[in-house]
Specification:
4 copies of one chain form a homotetramer. By secondary structure, chain A is of the alpha/beta class. Chain A has a domain of 78 residues: 3-Layer(aba) Sandwich (Rossmann fold). Chain A has 5 helices and 7 strands; from the N terminus they run βαβαββαβαββα. In chain A, strands 4-3-2-1-5-6-7 form a 7-stranded parallel sheet, with helices on both faces. In chain A, helix 3 packs across helix 4. The two termini of chain A are 18 Å apart. The mean pLDDT of chain A is 98. At the A-D interface, strand 4 and helix 3 of A face strand 4 and helix 3 of D.
Chain lengths: 151, 151, 151, 151
């Protein structure tokens, strides 16, 4: 079965964060993991782009009712029609998650992940718990999450 | 239509927090609001007890598939069978929320509420955003949330 | 705890069906049950109107994200933001259901109810299983469902 | 983006139906479609087996909270933790559906599909609407659904 790493973060972000997300996705694909995300723009789009380009499968769990809302780098769209309730499905589908910046939507995902006992690595994200493992850069983030989900 | 205030917090808590939650519920009922919560134990149970005793309607949005899991002070049980995805339905059903302590489940509810732009008043809870209005005691919390949802 | 009877049926219907739904709601309130429905128009609205007028509590489980979409006879709105996934929550919240006419949305609710082993009484609705108890008129429907959920 | 055909049917079934489901899955993979199903046993398992063996991607949208409940032929598990509410997500993720036998759970999926206007092809399944296109055998079913979703 395909092993998925979740990438969560803001739906809108500046160039620096786009690049961070892209590098995270690239590393995930290189390590032969799949990526699961919310399927929309910003961090979700750039992480999916990176993973798609390095040969990884990208899964988008969409809030909308229809697959056409997915960004162009999503290989597999799951349109839930459940709005932000889909945040929990992203978390459940991932073995562990990397949070790249993020606002309140991302915070709901971090909270669910920690409640369910799933590892969370953070790149410039919410600093609300010692349960979030900090990473220095995209490669470090992917190294850390892959170790955490393998142990 | 019945106006509901959400009360969120830990499913297990000590006597001091039980009393805080009870007083919050009592004040909600006195002010003729209904209370919506997760329907289970701890803060949910004591807040429902208070509201029920002061004549307010208590609604429990349950993670389980069956109403029998509701605490004894729930007047109306909505068993979702959707696990913690029900957290979002609690938030959507409330005009505003009072968080009493709480762990990661409560954090997911606070995050959803702030994402949706609903007012949140905090009593000894997560201190993660200036968007959470701090209260000194149960009466202060209910005063503040009722003002926020009326404005 | 309030005992709820679900009323399901088309969101748009002619005068005859509106009257059927209204009579069903009226009988539910007279027997001191609450009513749970999808909270919108057609059968949902007229059943809620009847129940509300005979003093019963009416609960609307809405597909939308906001309570304002409820019809005017809903006492308690639960806006799920989950689209027609809310059909299952209506079924879970009811002890038994009365189907008044209905199209595919109603059929999904009947299917869920029968899958979960909840009694279903039908008034001029889908004739797809002997598990649906047929009723001759609104009073007969409410008599039959109240007997089924009490046994 | 991967195009998915949904296969729905009973979680327990006899050898004849297992073979029908297996043949349906085989044809789906041969035509380079992916398969989405409920991820559990019976029709879901044998259809996934067929599709997996002919090189198609298999997606299982699970009712449970954890991927470990998926049958062995699921390439990608989406554990929703939402019980049978996941039926709707199967329907939304598919361009069209093939129903192989089935009981009330399958009926809820057929109802949702027809409500959303998605094509449904039936193999020995519920005969409740002319909107369900009947097929004579697995190859015929897959031929018919692929034509319907391409038009």
């Amino acid at each position: 079965m395909k092993k998925l790493i979740g990438v969560i973060g803001s739906g809108q972000c500046d160039l620096d964060v786009q690049n961070l997300a892209y590098q995270v996705g690239l590393e995930i694909g290189k390590k032969n993991y799949g990526l699961v995300c919310g399927g929309l723009g910003g961090v979700m789009e750039y992480a999916a782009k990176g993973c798609h380009e390095s040969g990884g499968l990208t899964v988008g769990i969409l809030p909308q009712e229809d697959a056409e809302y997915a960004n162009p780098y999503i290989d597999l769209a799951i349109p839930t029609g459940m709005g932000v309730a889909r945040n929990l499905i992203i978390v459940r589908s991932a073995l562990g998650l990397i949070a790249v910046t993020g606002r309140y939507g991302t915070l709901s995902e971090i909270a669910y992940a920690l409640q369910l006992g799933k590892p969370v690595v953070g790149l410039n994200t919410w600093d609300i718990s010692e349960d979030i493992v900090k990473a220095d850069n995209p490669r470090d983030a992917v190294d850390k999450i892959t170790k955490l989900i393998s142990s």
